[in-house]
Design brief:
Shape: globular
Largest sheet: 2 strands, antiparallel
Number of strands: 2
Distance between the termini: 26 Å
Radius of gyration: 18 Å
Helix content: over 70%
Low-confidence stretches: none
Strand content: under 5%
Mean pLDDT: 84
Structural class: mainly alpha
Strand order of the largest sheet: 1-2
């Protein structure tokens, strides 16, 4: 189980530091139903990550992610593919980055956050965690890495739970600040939102590149050892 948990730690951090979900929660907290919407978003985020990870674990288990005492070769191939996809995504985002930080744009749906209900906030939490291509690729990579270790079903569940908890820290931080500081949190949250929005592209490019290279390295190392 320790090996499975160790495999997901860097990937969970990558998901946790995604700027857009953090900014979304900050914006929600500034609305009349802010705290309810923020909590709903984070719960939706947890459900999305858990659902995506569980599906991959079930599929990987059924397909034999571990063969005898060792990992299945196809999982290493999946890691290579995911690694290449993440590196390509990082390069594409970097090429499309705004040349001026002042031109950094957030998704259009964020302009409608003040009209969100808790149900809609939860739906967006699920979408950003389980449907967003960047996070989905990382989650698939994490679940595949867990399945490949050959640990027991209980151990895999614990490792996935650790991944989900750590991957939720980022979006949950604004909520913790809001609860802990109350009215004094406005300035802190505004500064956080501005910084994350301004550096969104750079942060995501670094995260995607580092995680992509990690998956590539893991896949190449395992395949080379099996050759």
């Amino acid at each position: 189980m320790g090996e499975a948990i160790g495999a997901v730690l860097p990937l969970a951090v990558g998901v946790s530091l995604s700027p857009i979900p953090i900014v979304a929660v900050v914006l929600m907290l500034a609305t009349p139903r802010g705290r309810a919407n923020g909590i709903a978003f984070v719960l939706g985020w947890v459900v999305g990550l858990a659902a995506a990870g569980t599906v991959v674990l079930l599929v990987s288990g059924g397909a034999g992610a571990s063969e005898g005492q060792g990992p299945a070769t196809w999982v290493d191939v999946v890691k290579l593919v995911l690694g290449v996809a993440l590196v390509v995504l990082a390069l594409i985002q970097w090429r499309r980055r705004p040349r001026d930080a002042a031109d950094a744009a957030l998704p259009a749906w964020m302009a409608t956050i003040d009209r969100f209900t808790p149900l809609k906030s939860a739906g967006f939490g699920v979408a950003l965690s389980a449907v967003n291509p960047k996070n989905l690729l990382i989650t698939v990579g994490a679940a595949a890495a867990v399945a490949q270790t050959g640990t027991s079903a209980g151990g895999q569940a614990v490792a996935l739970a650790v991944f989900v908890v750590l991957a939720t820290v980022g979006p949950a931080v604004p909520l913790a600040i809001d609860v802990g500081l109350g009215a004094r949190s406005a300035h802190v949250l505004t500064s956080l939102r501005t910084w994350m929005a301004t550096h969104n592209t750079a942060i995501m490019c670094v995260l995607l590149l580092v995680i992509g290279l990690k998956l590539l390295g893991d896949g190449i190392s395992s395949l080379s050892g099996a050759a």
